[in-house]
Batch of 3 targets.
Target 1
Amino acid sequence: MDKNFKFSPLFWPIKLKGDVIYILDETLLPHKEKYVKAKNYSQACLAIRQMRTRAVGQVLLVMYIFLMVIKSNKGKKNISPILVKVAKAINSTRPTLSFKYLTNMVLDWDKTGVPLDKAILGFLDMLKNARIKQAKEAASLIKDGDVILTHCNVSGLLPLIAGFAKSKGRVVSFFVTETRPYLQGSRLTAWELMRAGFDVTIITDNMVAQVMEEGKINKVIVGSDNLAQNGDIANKIGTYQIGLIAKYFKIPFYVLCAPTSGAKTGKDIKIEIRPDKELTIYQGVHLAPKGSKAYYPAFDITPNNLITKHIYLEVKNG
């Protein structure tokens, strides 16, 4: 990789300074790079619900919440009841996302008596290295001249993947869906790829079939927020239809996976239904008549048989 290459701010968007967590507010990008403060676990959980951070940012935030709670309760003999209370609050934030894997891991560490702060920091270090390894594996699938379609945002992995490909002399460019209604594609993915120096073309979510028909795409790479045990994935709404279209046009469909959740199949993953207003109002502007009803499932399920390859994030419990 180019020695001047830098990680995207979205690769690690959470920081802990003292007893305060700083969260890169992804709802303000690309216009402002601003960090919001969470001084307690309730404020941090609210940031997850409000999608101030998402994808890997939520994973990091969960672990940093526990670090903050440990630091703020330093000196107390038994903080296990507090940790259980915090875990319940985290698990209730967004139903489709598999936070129980993380919260149960921390609670299990607590039961064994290991130093929790060291265990969490060790996990975070392992996660960072695992994400880099995942990006390298994805980059190995890229050929010179590839044009990749992506949907939503994978928290800094696409610039990293493209950077590894570039270091091998392979030119890669991207088509990025807008990703309605939060526009993660046009606001976040396009922004981080362009700032890393890669060619990006933005399309609306409903242009995918036409663009593939025109032969402009030869690979698809998306993320996943929940991986079922049978290989089905839950990802940002709109992923399923891209998988179907890619299958029709015989275009490889690759998924950057989170660790497997407790769900046996995609049918066991609960789909989060977001508030109506997130679809009808954007940054205070009414996009539809006032009083309009809307339906916003935030995720859909892409079945395993549409996926060419799962690119796994290899992290271990402890």
Target 2
Amino acid sequence: MRRYFFLIAFLFAISAASQTQQPPRLEFPLWTGDAPGALGKDAKDIPTLTPYFAPPGKATGASFIICPGGGYAALAPHEGFQYAIWLNEQGITGFVLKYRLGSNAYRHPAMMQDVQRAIRYVRANAEKWNLDPNRIGVMGSSAGGHLASTALTHFDAGNPAAADPINRASSRPSLGILCYAVITMGPDTHAGSKRYLLGDNPDPALVELLSNEKQVTANTPPVFIFHTYEDSTVKVENALEFASSLRRHGVPFALHIYPKGAHGMGLGGSQWDPGNRHPWTYDCVLWLKEQGYGNGASRN
């Protein structure tokens, strides 16, 4: 009799799993063929997403595209997978984006195309992945924060006539988290990020376009912003100017400027250490719960 009940339970589990089609467990490419403007076919030329699914018992249906920092020259791992695991604690699924880099000879708009495609990809597949297409946020640190702020200020509703169903989906994120982000390409920018994104002598019109504090509109999604006063790599003015622009356009935001914290600290340091998290993580947990995205858990 015990064996019989085990078999019934096993068959029920298979049936339940088949009703919710999960995305691939491993890194997968954003395009089936070459990405727009691809310079080759190596790993560096192939933008990808790596999913980290919220535990079924905690899942809220919300998700975030995560853009690691690295000055548009590299991708910092602790600003990718660690953020995803932290989001999982709150019932949020994280998708870590591997976007193309200036150190591999890519320039704008390649990076923007990658993050926009990532948002479209998740939205187009949200139903079969048991995610809410209206709760897909974008998160980024440093130069990855610039890319996230680009997604927050440069988006479209999708092309309903596109042959590719992914391109029919909107690229507008529903929420943003910006961690010690590069925002401007003006005087307060991070010079290395600007060079790797736009080249050595960029067109002034392109500098204006990618100075995202100047691209905010009333349709920009709500944003959580944090920075530290002592950050000597990316000036705190980036956060202040973006928040000021959000305010002028009537966009809700949470702004936290902390006195301490080195640039690139991630959740609190480069190593996974739930007992040593920076205060921004707890403030953000509360904000995510207020937005209806997280369950309010700060750690497992």
Target 3
Amino acid sequence: MIAEENDAAISQFKKGWAQGDDLSLLELANVYCFASKRYQDLKPLMAGLLKIQERSADVDVKHEIANILIAYSLFGTPAGDKQLFLSTIKGLSDEFILEREDTAQIVINGLETFKEQERANHFSNKLADLKKSEAFFKAGLSECVSKEYDAAIADFSKAIELNPKNYSTYYGRAGAEFELGKFELAIADDTKAIELNPTFWPAYHNRSIDKFNLKDFVGSTNDYTKAVELKGSPISVSGQ
């Protein structure tokens, strides 16, 4: 039954691809790669996939295509295509590879397959750090709920040390600092969250409250105005 469903999907997506539909091409590649494991059938799709990857602004689409290209380089020929694999990951930053665990894991597997153990270890260690960082982040959130703010700050700080590019962790630590009356530290962390994600309106909102508590009324008003602009509606100013 599954094979019949895959064949029906392949037929449908081939028709869409013939009409120039990028989504049909991508879905066809997904069926070949992940649903039916027909890796050899991916070869005629490679040029089209590379064009979609180049012009797409959607990070998820880029990850999806990267995973397909890597899978094809590993399984599309009996011995694998090391050159294609290495050229595929050469254009991907560490940040992009590690952004999603499925992408990171398939890169690690490929590096190990092609005896690039040093680089495989590099990504394995980075991925482990991200998982540890996420665990500390979740612990910090739980401690904020139970009002253990000093412990929360300690765990958020450990999370930041392991992954300094997660804006949510700075925002979380700022919330704990606010509760302890450490408004200047909270401002610094909300500012860092904004640097990492300029459209994250809650950080502007909370920074406006921190500034209000320090009697920076102009700065507070500016941040609140920016938060409303980004959110698109008025926001409560009763607390963090």
